[in-house]
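pasting for the record
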Amino acid sequence: MALDDDRCRHLGRTLRLAALALLLHGCTGFGPAAVGRDRIDYAQAVARSAQREMLLNIVKLRFGEPPTLSSVSQIVAGYTIEGRVDVGTNLLRPGYWLGDDVSVGVGGTFSDRPTITYNPVRGSDYARMLLTPLPPYELIAMLTSGAPADATLRLAVKSLNGVPIGRKPGDGTPPDPRSIETLELLEMLRARGILGTEFETSGGERHVSLLVNETDGRLDPDARKLIERFRLDPSRRKFRIVFGFHRNRPDEISIYTRSLVEILNAVADEIQVPLDLVHGGQTYATRGPAYPAEVSVRIRSHATRPDDAFVTVDYGGVWYSIDNGDFASKRTFGLLMLLAAVMETAGHSPLPVITIPSG
């Protein structure tokens, strides 16, 4: 009987370990652990799809097709897990010994069925995102959050207090030297902490002002040069930022911004499209960059899908991509994504909701 007891104990341990393994398999991948994994995975998937949509819209504009926009309004991750432990034996066999005729089976099934809700952007939201000039308040908020001033202003601004920024898309003339010096002054003064911003809300409207800080009670010579360039009141240190084309008051800075579709059209002009598509009348010849090289987005075309690309899309059987080794293009493309996000949230659209079951 001692032998039978050993076999019984061994069988019991085997069954307990099998059940424990199945239980651990079902618990470790779900519950709180699922939040850390799924939150990042879904966020990355949404971000990558938004990048592909942005690149596709740029290519579509190059071929005369209007862009299409959609938003991910809700993600519901649904999981199902089923497990079983099977034990079989033949109790009727003559000369039966428990453990000689026992089979143990462990199995299970797992399914992951996420539900993703997409909302096409149409009507007033579509016009606001693509056709409305970028609000100066949102633009300054971008700059204060760390966006590079030179690249952001070159992309989004036509003029500052009547001083042109960059040049018109498709125009072969060089940019106004005053605009280059103005952008350099802005970036330098911001980096040195001489320029700041102040946000206010009055009467339900948001306002933003540019602050010029003094050092030891004295105005920095470069800051004085910037004030003179904008033809502002040299006795003031606070200037309201408003939307406009011309200088109107000595205590205000007028910013004339571009719409998102204007920016995307300028980027689309530079796509290196196949020459046979140009000769076939499907698109126009590639134009010179509307912005300096460090602010441009170099989009190349390929007959087959490139292996090492930052983002790539297929349009009309041709692959278009941004090289993963082109940091300048990736940075500018990131600014385009940020500008699109700013225009999306500038209205009253609800933020996306991600629902992940934790139990």
